[in-house]
Amino acid sequence: MLPFILLLCVGQWSLLLSAAFNVSHLPGFLHEGGSLPFHLETGYVEVDEFLGVELFYYFIQSERNPREDPILLWLTGGPGCSAFSGLALEIGPIKIRSEEYNGSLPNLVYNPYSWTKISNIIFLDSPVGTGFSFSNHPHGYETGDKSWSKHATIFLRKWFVDHQQFLANPLYIAGDSYAGKVVPVIVYEILNENELKVQPTLNIQGYMVGNPSTGEVIDFNARVPFAFGMGLISEELYQGIGEKCKGEDYESPKKAVCASLTQIFNEFESELMTSEILEPKCSLAAPNPKNTVVGTGRSTLQESNKHFLGPQFLKSSAEHTLIISCIYGLFLQTYAYYLMYIWANNAEVQDALNVKKGKVKEWLRCSDHLKYREDISSNLKYHVNVTTRGYRALVYSGDHDMLVPMMGTKQWIKSLKFFVTERWRSWHVSGQVAGYTESYSNNLTFATVKGAGHTAPEYKGEQCLAMLGRWISRMPL
Questions:
Q1: Considering 177, 283, 397, 439, which one is annotated as catalytic?
Q2: Were 311 and a residue from 126, 220, 320, 428 both cysteine, which residue would form a disulfide, CB within 3.0 to 4.6 Å?
């Protein structure tokens, strides 16, 4: 009798958790009247009952073999960037079609390099206040590294209660930019709870992070050697900063002589599209250098449903010219952000996604007003803890990213003191060099993606899909 009662309780819990909604059509999707050639589910999972925190997700089944292929929990950076950004700009099966806005709903097209070709993916709007996730109490929006990690772990266990057919699938936690800071923390939380027999047991296998933040000073200090290596600053400035700024955080130097040199560096940096230095500089996608949000200025976004971005929202006439040239040049990496805002705030779209009405006044690709605490100073101990327990890690970097440059990532990996198991070599896609890779003890692989920016799949979709496929199949890159 007891097993039946327990089963009944689990069944009731599952019913309470179930807020899933199957989406068969998306407005603007250019395929047979908007019908989707893949399985999309959206929903909410409550991760804090007291404050009423509910995280919104998009779940897309693998287009190959959903019952056996891995499941990825994908987190987008910021902190504060919607998971839909990762879905529609990076690794999901849809892309915003970049065409001049004419007042109608922007169009979506199929992405042939979607990671859902070979894996199931949960795109999670997190932390709370991101995308369509919300709290029923103002205090619920007070979040940080620790609460984000905890909420993501709670989310997964509740989600798997409602999706027990996927419990045996290999599970990986993945994300880029600032999300890379919390990814290994989430894996650490899952492993500890598994050891404590918290149910359901999750089949965690490892994690992957792209151009990731760690909380270490090197994340940002590496911009100076990156800029010198790319020929963006003089040898004199590079050497001067190296000599006068030893031990300093280049973002907030204390020594006056160091501050004067870093100010010169910042002026050079301000002329560039730092998320991908070969791209044109567009204020429409100007990043916040302090928290590595690669997003649009809020005042611009609030007015982006207009045909024209008026000069009243711009700092100068020169900036106005820059934005207009970017918009009408239809540069893919920036104009798509503008169109995405219009699409996601459309009432028909939100109805199709089954978004709860009245909970989020305005969808933002990246929010810059979260009450967020960086309460984990460094995640390096989590990288060490997880990998030395036998779990796998892939760390990859777009090699033209100046926000979190690859040489900083290489430096913190070196600080882990793992020994090299496979020395630096090229890896290839379609007969061409796609990047370079090096493998280390404790199951850690580092890879660069040649020509890619801060969010590598956004720039090099074919190469990143190949990288994922080889890595999750435990094949050499």
A1: 177
A2: 320
